[in-house]
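Work package 3, deliverable 3.1, input record:
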Amino acid sequence: MDYDPSIRLLTDHLALRPTTPNDIERALEIRSNHDVARNLVSATIPPDSEKMANWFKGHADEWRDGSAYRLAITLEARFIGVCDVFDIADGQGEIGYWLDRAVWGRGFGQEAATRLIRFATEEVGLTALRAGCADDNAASAAILTRLGFNRLKDVRVFSQSRQAEITQRRFHLTV
Ligand SMILES: CC(C)(COP(=O)(O)OP(=O)(O)OC[C@H]1O[C@@H](n2cnc3c(N)ncnc32)[C@H](O)[C@@H]1OP(=O)(O)O)[C@@H](O)C(=O)NCCC(=O)NCCS
């Protein structure tokens, strides 16, 4: 798919668009919050600015080769987080999302994830999606359950952000 940062995927309150390197600074600010980072298994606390910059700089190529689609979540044109579908192979992919701590609890996580799923299935054409969240991440589990994901067996994974092994709930959605 063409990488076109002017694309807008709209929801009731948000617009999702391809990420750009201009988002790096705000992403670092958001990911510096402990509550946000602790629920992302591969995040470091504090975030590594060089790694974050390289991650963002690779998004356009990932988009073009179809291995991942990283979307900036924006509220009134302000970057408030990311939702993405990644590790794409054989018509399947993993989804993830994170939002600025300041906007939690307003339904934006659910809204962004719902639009992400529609994009991944209808526009990218994936037929199955995977997701995982820490067993104490009630908000994320609620989002996935409401989206119709089925719960699979828990797994133990190392959380970089917590520097400990955690139990991760695994979820699967077949379209
Ligand atoms: C997960 C995250 C995106 C949720 O964003 P949000 O905008 O606050 O979520 P919403 O307001 O859409 O709420 C989603 C659901 O979670 C529930 N919820 C929200 N916060 C909750 C909490 N602390 N405890 C229990 N349930 C909670 C809401 O009631 C809602 O469920 P419902 O629709 O059944 O009522 C946000 O908390 C975040 O960025 N967390 C850090 C990163 C992260 O955890 N990413 C996911 C990794 S798997």
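The beta strands are 9-10, 15-18, 69-75, 78-89, 92-99, 128-134, 150-151, 155-159, 164-174.
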